[in-house]
Structure formats: structure tokens, C-alpha cells
Amino acid sequence: MSENTNTKRLRKKVNTENTVQEMANENTTKSFVMIMPIGGESYGFPKPMPKDTTDVKAWLIANGYSERLMEILGKQFTYEVK
Q1: What are the backbone dihedrals phi and psi of residue 50, each rounded to the nearest 5 degrees, phi first?
Q2: What is the pTM of this model?
Q3: In this structure, are residues 48 and 28 in contact, taking their beta carbons and an 8 Å threshold?
Q4: Quick one: residue 71, left, alpha or beta (phi over 0 = left, psi -120 to 50 = alpha)?
Q5: Structural domain boundaries of the chain?
Q6: Cβ neighbours of residue 39 under 8 Å, at least 6 residues apart?
Q7: Residue 46: is the preceding peptide bond cis (ω within 30°)?
Q8: What is the phi-psi region of residue 39: left when phi exceeds 0, alpha when psi lies from -120 to 50, beta otherwise?
Q9: Would you say 50 and 32 are in contact if contact means Cβ atoms under 8 Å apart?
């Protein structure tokens, strides 16, 4: 016997949802870290940053963090990664 149309749709939906969830889990657990610079809450941080980011300061600026604040803080500028 063949499956009816509703069963096929439901099976496809479940498989798609599982795939999307698996991709989301993989991206959040393997590919990204959360970064929180000083005063970052004013600029929408913490945000997920790709683990392979090589220039963290440039990434922060490109993602909305204040370059001016970074300059003002100088050596006191820090960030937390989780």
C-alpha cells in the first residue's frame, strides 16, 4: 500500500524540521562562540561570532561595536568569549 498524501506531507515536514534543528545545533555548538565586549549591551551584544574569526576587533566593529569606544578604552578594552 502506498502512503496517503497527508502522511507523505507530514513525514516530509518532520524530516525538514529535524534537518533544520540539526543544522542549528551544529552551528551553535560547533561553528560559533558567544562574544561580549565591554559595554557591548549598548550595541546588541552578546552575539554569536564564528570560531574561525582571526581579527576579533575588526569583526566586532563590522558587527556594530563602537570603534571609538574601543579606541578610548585602549589597553583596557576586553571581551569575554563563551
Answers
A1: -55, 135
A2: 0.63
A3: yes
A4: alpha
A5: 5-81
A6: 66, 69
A7: yes
A8: left
A9: yes
